[in-house]
Write a structure and sequence with these properties.
alpha+beta, 3-stranded antiparallel beta sheet, binds zinc ion, 12 strands, about 25% helix, 3 domains
């Protein structure tokens, strides 16, 4: 409309349209991702600049953002390297999710009985609702709820398993490539018992990690500064109980090279959301026509996308159609590139504060976070952006 958009100079103010997605929190991944480039990590001008619009601020890289829908890329003006445009929000959300997984926090004593009027009301704030009830074997104080008469303590409730003498045996078998069938046969346990134990190991590992895993005081110059990241394709018979064909999920792992300590491991599944819920989210946002990098929801595959993927797999396997699929019963597949970036950001959470130079090897390619070609020793800059290598196999 001509009645608006005029300023005193007479120039028409054209509202700037983004060619790169807006940052979310401090996550902005759309820059030259060639670590050897002088412009590595420098955020380029995010706006389209049609004729008549103000120029980009001086000193801000401009480059170009060509490519069709879902395939936009940023072309660096300095090194001509192209970097696919990424969805900042999806990476931010996935980083938050995996961060919360390891953050189990202190256990607040409270009644945990579902349906009890005192459920989740902490002892510290409501002492009148509880009575002191001695101590646990482990020495933790115990209380009894006056509402439901159940007892509880500060310790986390250990999952119950009858034969704890077999824990070590079962763990060894699981960690040494034995099938569940063989594990069940040798240990004499049912599948149900084995799955319960896996849950128990998971609890133990999370508890250990939250208490003990602190890299802030590690001198990487002394213990070794090389890290190796690699991905494994895990083949799962997912789609059907009757007729099976393999569905591949990626597992991404970064190990400290000298000690073999696993710094971070990621699996391409979010068990907390179903493909149907993802579909509903996407429908509600009504962004079918929006490019993936600019969507509100782009972290996981929707049911439609996953079904299309299964149909392709079924065709390749010579099956006429995809039947209802069973396992895993819940969960959605993550977009692999989103998972890679979130993995890199978790590494930065763990070791980003160190002053020591760090070396990352990714899928056989040496990637340092050095921004200068001249420096002989690769140096990780605290606060610098880490970029997963461009070895993304599937997005
Ligand atoms: Zn560049
Ligand atoms: Zn209660």
């Amino acid at each position: 409309m001509s009645s608006v958009s005029k300023i005193s100079s007479g120039a028409v103010v054209v509202p700037l349209v983004r060619r790169l997605p807006a940052p979310v929190a401090d996550v902005d991944l759309n820059f030259c991702r060639n670590p050897a480039c002088a412009q590595y990590g420098l955020l380029p001008d995010p706006f389209k600049r049609p004729n008549g619009s103000p120029p980009a601020p001086p000193g801000v890289p401009r480059g170009a953002v060509p490519g069709g829908k879902h395939k936009e890329f940023y072309k660096c003006p300095a090194c001509r390297t192209t970097s696919r445009v990424k969805n900042n929000r999806a990476v931010f959300e996935e980083h938050e999710r995996v961060r919360r997984l390891s953050d189990i926090g202190p256990c607040v004593p409270a009644c945990r009985t579902a349906g009890c009027a005192n459920q989740d009301l902490p002892v510290s704030e409501h002492p009148d609702l509880y009575q002191s009830f001695g101590k646990t074997k482990g020495g933790d104080p115990r209380w009894r709820c006056k509402g439901c008469a159940k007892t509880f303590s500060t310790g986390r409730p250990a999952r119950r398993h009858k034969r704890s003498d077999k824990n070590r045996l079962v763990l060894d078998m699981l960690c040494n490539d034995l099938s569940l069938a063989k594990t069940a046969k040798i240990s004499g346990l049912s599948y149900r018992d084995i799955y319960r134990r896996i849950g128990f190991y998971h609890d133990q590992v999370r508890s250990f990690v939250s208490r003990r895993e602190d890299f802030s005081r590690i001198d990487f110059a002394e213990v070794g500064s090389r890290f190796a990241t690699d991905s494994q394709a895990l083949t799962i018979n997912w789609p059907s109980r009757k007729r099976r064909f393999p569905v591949v999920f990626q597992h991404l792992c970064t190990a400290h090279a000298r000690s073999g300590f696993i710094m971070e491991a990621s699996f391409q599944l979010d068990p907390a959301i179903s493909p149907e819920e993802a579909e509903a989210q996407a429908l509600a946002a009504n962004e079918d026509q929006v490019s993936t990098a600019f969507r509100r929801h782009a972290r996981i595959w929707t049911k439609t996308e996953f079904d299309a993927y299964l149909t392709r797999l079924a065709k390749a396997a010579g099956l006429p159609q995809v039947e209802d699929y069973g396992l895993p019963a819940t969960g959605s597949m993550l977009r692999y590139d989103v998972m890679q970036f979130a993995h890199a950001m978790r590494l930065r959470d763990h070791i980003g504060e160190t002053d020591d130079p760090l070396i990352f090897v990714m899928g056989g390619t040496l990637v340092s976070s050095n921004r200068s070609r001249q420096s002989s020793s690769p140096r990780y800059r605290p606060g610098a952006r880490i970029s997963p290598s461009s070895t993304s196999r599937r997005q």
